[in-house]
Amino acid sequence: VTFVESGGGLVRPGESLRLSCAAPGFAFSEAIISWYRQVPGQARQWFATIIPGGDTRYTDSVKGRFTLYRDVVTNAAVYLQMDNLKPEDTSVYYCQEYDSAAWGEGTQVTVSL
């Protein structure tokens, strides 16, 4: 399944964004969904995962600032709430189902004064 990422934009340090990961008809509650980000010229890096049941895992650089959760009403999306954004969070953000080879187009997040 190829997901559609959205919600990126240009924000200042300390501000927030909420990214969405969606796919029509996909049952997000039954899937392991991970988020990655990539800066041009560098490898795509994992930073967060949500598993069925709602447990989450984060890399240390985003722990305490980013929150990953499912849309429990519609089960039609996973959201990434990003608070206290830093310039080093500037990247293209992607979501992917566990063990999938499919990538969406991502959404650009830019944190800058």
Question: What's the arrangement of secondary structure elements?
Answer:
Layout: E1 4-6, E2 9-11, E3 17-22, E4 33-38, E5 45-50, E6 56-58, E7 66-70, E8 77-82, E9 91-97, E10 107-111
Parallel strand pairs: 2-10
Antiparallel strand pairs: 1-3, 3-8, 4-5, 4-9, 5-6, 7-8, 9-10
Contiguous runs where pLDDT drops below 50 for at least 5 residues = none
Gyration radius, in Å: 13 Å
Q: What's the shape?
A: globular
Largest sheet: 6 strands, mixed
Q: How large a portion of the residues is in β-strands, by DSSP E?
A: 35-45%
Question: What is the residue-mean pLDDT, rounded to a whole number?
Answer: 95
Alpha-beta classification: mainly beta
Please give the number of β-strands. Answer: 10
Describe it for me?
The protein contains no helices and ten strands. The protein starts with a strand and ends with a strand. The strands form two sheets. Strands 2-10-9-4-5-6 form a six-stranded mixed β-sheet, with no helix packed on it. By secondary structure, the chain is mainly beta.
